[in-house]
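Following up on my earlier thread - several people asked me to post the actual chain instead of describing it. Fair enough. Here it is, all 187 residues.
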Amino acid sequence: MNIKSILTTLLILSGSMAHADKDTPVPPEVQKLAENLVAALKSADDTALLGCWHTPEALAKIKQAEEAAEAAAEGKTLSPEDLAEEGEDEIKDRTNENEDTTERAARLRAFLTKHFGELSGLTLQSVDLDVDKDAPVEQSAYDDIDLLLRTADGTMITIDVDDLIKIEGVWKFTGRLDDDLSIKLPE
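Reply from S.P.:
Thanks for posting it. Predicted structure:
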């Protein structure tokens, strides 16, 4: 990647950061979840990292319920086989996203260590959330979760996670760890 494309990427990312909804309050359990994510990144513990995400099986149950409700609204009924297939597809998709997340976390760790110092110096500064306006009324959800981190050398970076939902009273991430990051160099 040449310097022009790097600078262009940084400008685009910094522009998107300026549009983040900074007024959305962060629930304490979401703050703790973000802290757990940073600790898992620092320790290179992929099990702990994926522990910050809802399991593919839990998300498959949600998907099956959504599909059944959608079919019922259209006056149809899904067969148990159709529901099982929906669940299997969702598990496969979410498992692939988990694999992407662990691969991206490994690349992020290597990049941060190479350019900004030891991961032990990485600290969470803030969490920015956007309310997911498309989420069903009965389900609390956020999208575009931005984690602002300070590296060992004082550089500010922002990493993103796709979505955050509450299932059975527990907040966890869904989707994947984004493969882009925003960097604000110290002055």
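The CA atoms of residues 60 and 89 lie 8 Å apart. That should answer part of your original question.
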